[in-house]
Amino acid sequence: MTRGRFHAGMVSTPVPASASVPVEALAETAALEHTFHSSAALHRRLWRARSRLYRLVDVLLLVLAAIAATVAAPGPADVGELAWAGAYVLVTLAGLEARRFYNFRLHDTPTYMLAQVFVTTSVAAMAVTFLRATTSDSSDVATEIVRLWVFALVFLGAGRLGITLDQRRALRHGEAGLSTLIVGAGTVGQLIARRLLDHPEYGLRPTGFLDKDPLIDASGESAIPVLGASWDLERVVREHGIEQVLFAFSMAPHSVLLTMMRACRRLGVEVAVVPRLFEEVSNRIEIEHVGAVPLLKIATVDPRGWQFTVKYAIDRVAAALAVIVLSPPLAALALIVRLSSPGPILYRQQRVGLDGKVFHILKFRTMRLADPAETFTPAEGVAPGGVEGVDRRTRAGVIMRRLSLDELPQLFNILRGEMSFIGPRPERCGFVEAFEKRVYRYGDRHRVKSGLTGWAQVHGLRGQTSLADRVEWDNYYIENWSPWLDLEILLLTVPAVLGRKGA
């Protein structure tokens, strides 16, 4: 096959003039392209139909919420109250559309969707309250709107939670997802492909790479094939029914990448771009312009700022209350450890925390005492943790580790200011020095206090899992920290513990 070249604004795969192409072959190729086009179009139609269904479900739930709020009112409802309830439903639906609530997103997590529902219903309630207050003198305006807001929040929130969980289930089982082409098969492209394969709930199914000089896998095996180079874009999109093109880093010139993006637009394919310096790009981005040139203004999180000072103060107060409330189960667990096997109740180990300072982490002992000659070296690229070497767990220790009950004494570490409730998990001194030399950005995780739970842990990166991935998630948490992110991690900690990942 003769490789095509880029022309101004289009991609083509020319056929040499001397070539003789049978009519049957042309007809077969046309039929094949039509089939792939039809498949991609069908997928997009199904997605649009699903979005319309979700809109209909939301309308029905909001109408039911308005009816329930009216029925729950202490007195009979008048026409005016019903009209304002209808207005609230319309304002809420308009708010959902304005927030592009029904568009495809990578992170349709239950917590994100519930937050969107909370914000939208709350803004709608405030808007309707303002309108009613300026157009009527009723003394029950606030009570009626609050009642309507509560019912809408519960009905719509429950419905969206069910829809989101069903979507994630379908994605995990490969029943949905957009066929994705990754431009650039270098380190970043390979990382994105592996992440998409490991997390199908993102909704992007990597189909292949497009790269003239792809990174060669050292093992000689790759789950994602290289389907061609830049000039093969149109052919690959048509043959594989590509619905999303993701531009990672490649050696292609700037002009070629721009031409590829314009070709994607002409083909009706969605485009996403991994920005340069992506390690420093957080959720706090403002776009400004110098003429027609956009500037990404990146607001950074200061771990030395007042926000973290308040966070650490709240940690210590909450830890003190938790120790008081949990003192009976803590005493019971201490007794169980004492009776399970000879040895101390608490296990103390030196760990590295904020700014590289060493402290003694506390845990309930869950294992029999080790042989002093026994050592453990983690596999290359794998974080230490979990059961290392010979399994010395006691029967009580198995249950305690499965439910993370052995971590409860770290409340005293938080109370002493050595740890936080949420942050990167601290590592042993002997490993930190080696990891800082060979793991990218490992030392950056020491900008904040170590945590009892963290962003990496609630995403399954506990025990002997990828060290590079854990560091990536830890630094993401630091650079995108907010009270809402802490709340999301707390909510995700419970299913992560009950899921027994890495226990």
Describe the structure.
It is a single chain. The chain has 503 residues and is α/β, with parallel strands linked by helices. Helix content is 49%, strand content 13%. It is built from 14 helices and 13 strands.
Could you list some keywords that capture this structure?
single chain, 503 residues, alpha/beta, four-stranded parallel β-sheet, 14 helices, globular
**Sheet with most strands: strand arrangement:** 4-3-5-6
Taking all residues together, what is the mean pLDDT? Answer: 81
SSE order, one letter for each helix or strand: EEHHHHEHEHEHEEEHHEEHHEEHEHH
Q: End-to-end span in angstroms?
A: 53 Å
What is the count of helical runs? Answer: 14
Low-confidence segments, given as residue ranges, are: 1-40
Q: How large, in whole angstroms, is the Cα Rg? A: 28 Å
Query: How is the biggest beta sheet arranged?
Result: 4 strands, parallel
Number of separate strands = 13
* Overall geometry: globular
Please estimate the helix content: 40-55%
Global structural class: alpha/beta
Summarize the structure.
This protein has helices at 23-71, 79-98, 110-135, 141-172, 187-198, 233-240, 254-267, 306-325, 327-340, 395-402, 410-415, 429-438, 467-479, 483-498, and strands at residues 5-7, 10-12, 178-183, 204-210, 244-247, 270-273, 285-290, 293-298, 346-352, 358-364, 419-422, 427-428, 450-453. The chain is an alpha/beta fold.
